[in-house]
Structures are given as structure tokens and as C-alpha cells.
Amino acid sequence: MKNNREKTVIKTSIISIISNILLSGFKAFVGLVANSIAIISDAVNNLSDALSSIITIIGTKLAGKEPDKEHPYGHGRIEYITSLIVSAIVLYAGITAMVESIKKIINPENVDYSVITLVILIAGIIVKFVLGIYVKKKGKIVNSDSLIASGSDAFNDAILSISVLVSAIIYMVFNINLEAYVGVLLSIFIIKAGIELIKESVDNMLGVRIESSLAKNIKKEIIKEPDVKGAFDLILNDYGPDKYSGSVHIEVPDTLSVSDIDKISRRITKNIMEKYGVVLHTIGVYSVNTKDKKILKVQKEIHDIVFSHKGILQMHGFYFDEDNKSISFDIIIDFEIKKREEVYKKIVDEIQEKYKDYKISIVLDIDVSD
Predict the structure, then answer these.
(1) Helical H runs in 229-313?
(2) Residue 286 is inside which H or E element, if any?
(3) With left for phi above 0 and alpha for psi between -120 and 50, is residue 188 left, alpha or beta?
(4) What is the reported pTM?
(5) pLDDT tens digits, one per residue of 230-250
(6) C-alpha 232: how far from its chain's center?
(7) Where are the domains of the chain?
(8) Would you put residue 35 in left (φ > 0), alpha (ψ -120 to 50) or beta?
(9) 212-365: what fold?
(10) Is the separation of the CB atoms in 186 and 42 below 8 Å?
């Protein structure tokens, strides 16, 4: 699976490199002959795309290295670093194009478009649209942020090349020179794309919320176990595209033995690894009271208190310990609630007031996967 992904990324990147180098060469030649900063900027943008694909190949090869003593979870996150480098190249290309275009506005020069110019621009637009569809499709299949970004960039390039084509036609028909202004427009789009790509790369390195569909599917698979009443606190650490390792809590009846729970945990770990390629290295346990119906009444009362407050997303892990006079559970408060700590404190105080003889232990949990 890993080898197939690597081969797909490299093959797609090589096709992108060849296409962009050819386009860049043709456009640079035409831009120099026509003295067009817009076409030259377009050529530079194509060249930066080729360089981005080369970096993508290098990053993919490095990310595919086997784990070692210093990096026991592998080298997958290198892909996020190479994505950041690619983003910086795109941003630099945009800034360079902006500077040159502004120079042309201040000191305008005559341009010399021809039919050959239009033919090459049209051919470039078609190639970029086809390349964008191909690269983006492959990127989605193998979950490669770099390929998806390259595909999107190719679409943007095609759209921007259309603006260059339009400015060339306007000049040839009406003798109105807009190419420097089109160059500015080109550079704005390129800079915007570069900033967005940098943000996405940084987000991946910092760590973002687990993909909702993946989290839900894993939880659904876990609660297929007959004795598992619920799955909570799913945490997945991202060590590169499709490389997750994490933990989860499961709710099970308090009548199960340690041996029973061990068997359940092993089955869950095996199933999740086989179906989703996710390593659950830790499965914690919430014991659910089942022996005393009075406890269910207490749980219902506490549940009503908790959910009487705005922004409560979840309450789980409830356990009532009569012997030690303690009540414990977790709650999740929506991040949209600005004063989450105040809401949490109110809940604790209200429950403590109602159950004065008990030690109340409530964990303010974090919603990382729902």
C-alpha cells in the first residue's frame, strides 16, 4: 500500500514536471519575443510548479523511510515540511511577478503579440486544465496534500492564463495595453494561493481536528462489540498522510472481568488496524454502573443538570462509587462557548450542592474528533 502510494505520487509529479517545463519554455520564449511581462510571469509560475513537483518527489521519498531509533513513528511528517516549501515557492513567484508588473505599469513598454502567441497561450490553457484534473484526482486517491495543492494550482494557472489571453486579444483588436495590469492580477492570485497553502501546511504540522468521517467510522466499528456501550475521547496523532496512532476510551459494564476487557481491547485494536490502518495503542475503560437501579436515577438527575447549560456537547464515563462516596464523569463543552471554564464551574457547583456528601470529580474534556 505504502509503495503504491509512493509510486503514484512520484509518477504524477514527473508528468507534472515535464508538462510545466515545456510550458514554461514556450511561454518564456513567447513572452521575451512579445516583450510581455504577463506571459513571462505565467512562464515563471509554470517553472515554480515544476520545482514544486520536484520537491514533492523528494519529500515523498524521505517520508517513506522506515522508522528508526530517533524517529520510531516514521518520517511521514516530512511531507508537511515539503508542502510548506512548495507553498513558499508559490508565494515567492507571486511576489516576484507583482514587482515586475508594477515596474511595467510605472514604465510601460510596447508589446508585440502575434497569432503564434495566441496559439501557445490556448495550448497552455488546455494542458493546464487537463493536468489539474489528473493531478488532483491522483492526489485524492492517495491522500497527498502536495498533489492536491498542485492540481488546484494548475486549475488556477489555467484561469489566470485565460486573462493573459484576453488581454492579448484586446491589444491586438483595440490596441489597448492591459498586460501589466493583468500581470498584477496574476500575481495577486498566486500570492493568495501561496498564503493559503502555507496556512494549510502549518495547520498540519501544528495538528488539526481529526477528519470527522474517519472518527465516526472508527467509533461505529468499536461499538459493534456487544459489551461496549460507547466510544469516547478518540485521539489520533498524525505522523504523516494516512499514518495515525492514538487512543480511545470505551464504556463497558462493571460486571466484566479483566480477562473479558482484555479480549475486547485486543479485538478492537485488530479490527481498527485492519479496516482503517490506525494503531490504537491505548484503550482506556469507563466502568458503567449496572448493579443498582438507584444509581441510574442519580445519573439521570446529573444528566439533566449538565444539559440544562448551553453548549454541552457530551457527557460520558459516568461512575457512581457508593463505597467511597464519589461521582465521576467527563463533559465536553462546545468551543463556541467563550467562557467554558465558567460553565464548567457552575456545573460542578450545582452537582456538589445537590450531592453534598459525595466527592464530585468532573473532567472538562476536549472535543477533538466529533
Answers:
(1) 258-276, 293-306
(2) strand 278-288
(3) alpha
(4) 0.58
(5) 888 888 877 766 677 888 899
(6) 22
(7) 2-206, 212-365
(8) left
(9) Alpha-Beta Plaits (3.30.70)
(10) yes
